[in-house]
Amino acid sequence: MSGIGPERTAALAAKVEAFVRDTVIPYERDPRRDHHGAPTEELVEELKEHARAADVLTPHILPDGSHLTQRETAVVLTASGLSPLGPLACNTAAPDEGNMYLLGKVGSPDIQARFLKPLVEGRARSAFFMTEPDGGAGSDPSMMQTHCHQDGNHWVINGRKTFITGAQGAKVGIIMAKSDDGACMFLTDLPHPAIRIDRVPNTIDNSMPGGHATITIDNLRVPADQMLGNSGEGFQYAQVRLSPARLSHCMRWRGACIRAHEIATDYANRRMAFGKTLIDHEGVGFMLAENMIDLKQSELMIDWCAGVLDGGSLGTAESSMAKVAVSEALMRVADRCVQVMGGMGVTADTIVEQVFREIRAFRIYDGPTEVHKWSLAKKIKRDWKAAQAGSGVA
C-alpha cells in the first residue's frame, strides 16, 4: 500500500475530527432511537448527508477505490470514533468498514459494482453472517452448521445465524456456509424472503443500527457468480477480513475512550471535594494518569499491528495481540472515567456510560480475550516445536 503520506493523512484526520466535534457530537442527544436505544435509519442517513457535504464520507477509501494504509486508517478512524455516532456518520463503522475492505480485496468486478459501490457511497448498510447459535460456529468457525449445495447455476443455503450486527435494515449480506469442499462465502441482496429475522435481543451496547439479530436462512438461492472465489475458500477470505477488522475496532474505540477521558478530566478539574478539585486528590489524579498511559500504549500497539498488515502479512497473531491488549486497556480507561465521575459517570448525561458499555461488549466481539490468548498459546507451542526440530533436539 502506498497511501497518501503523513501530511495528507494528518490533514484528513483533522478534517474528520473537526466534523465529528462540531457536527456529530450535538446529535448525541437526538431522541431518534429505536426500542433498543440504537440510532434510527433516519438519524444515520441525516448524519451521512452532513458527512457527504463536509467531504468526510468514507474517508478511508480514496476516489480511485484504493485504501489508506492501515497506519493512515488508524489516524482517521480514531478521529471518527470520538463520538459513538461518528463512525456511522463517516461510514467507517463496523461491519460495513470490514465488509468494504473484504470486497475491495477479493470481490470480482461485477460484485464490486453491484455490492461494494453502494456501501462506499454510503447508500447501503451491510451485514456479515458468520456466527451461529446452538453449537454452531462462533469462536470456533470450524463448527459451522449452515450448509450449502450447488443446484445448477445456483447455490442453495440453509441454516441459522446469530449476533448478526446490522442485519435489520441492511441491503447487502455476506453469508458464510459450508459445502462438501469446506467454507464458502456468498453475496446477497437484503432484505430477502428466504432470510428471516427471528429476534433482535437487547444487548449491553446500542451503537449499531439494527442491533445483533438471530436469523433463519431457509432455502436461499444465490447465483453461482455471487460466491466470493471458489467453494471451500471461505475461511481464507474470512481471515482477509478479520485481521484488519479487529484492528479497526481498536482504532474507533480508542477514539471513544479519548473523548471519555476528556470528559472525565474536565469533570475532575471542575468538581470540588474536601476543599480542592478532584484532580488534586491522588486517588483521582492517578487514575487519569493511568488513562494517559493506557491510551498511549493502545496507540503504539495499533500502530505496530498496522505496520505488520501494511507489510503484506495477514497478521493473525499480531491482530490477536492488538485486540487483547487494546480492548483490555480501553476497558480500564472507560472504567476509570466512570469512577472519576462518580454518580455522574453512570448517567446518560454524558457519553461516558455508553462508552463503558460499548467497550465491555468489544472485549467479546471479534473474538473474546480468552480465545485470542488460547490462539496465541497454540502459536507459542508450534513455534517452540519448530525451534526444537530445527535445533535437532529430540
From TrEMBL:
Coiled-coil regions listed = none
UniProt keyword annotations, A-Z: FAD, Flavoprotein, Oxidoreductase
Q: Can you cite a GO biological process for this protein?
A: fatty acid beta-oxidation using acyl-CoA dehydrogenase
Q: Which residues cross the membrane?
A: none
Any one GO MF term held by the record is:
flavin adenine dinucleotide binding
GO CC terms: cytoplasm
**Sequence ranges assigned to domain Acyl-CoA dehydrogenase/oxidase C-terminal in this UniProt record:** 232-379
**Entry keyword annotation includes Oxidoreductase:** yes
Cofactor field: FAD
Q: Residue limits of the Acyl-CoA oxidase/dehydrogenase middle domain?
A: 127-202
Report the sequence similarity comment from the record: Belongs to the acyl-CoA dehydrogenase family.
PANTHER family per the record? ACYL-COA DEHYDROGENASE FAMILY MEMBER 11, MEDIUM-CHAIN SPECIFIC ACYL-COA DEHYDROGENASE, MITOCHONDRIAL-RELATED
* Name of protein: Acyl-CoA dehydrogenase
Q: Which organism is it from?
A: Sphingobium lactosutens DS20
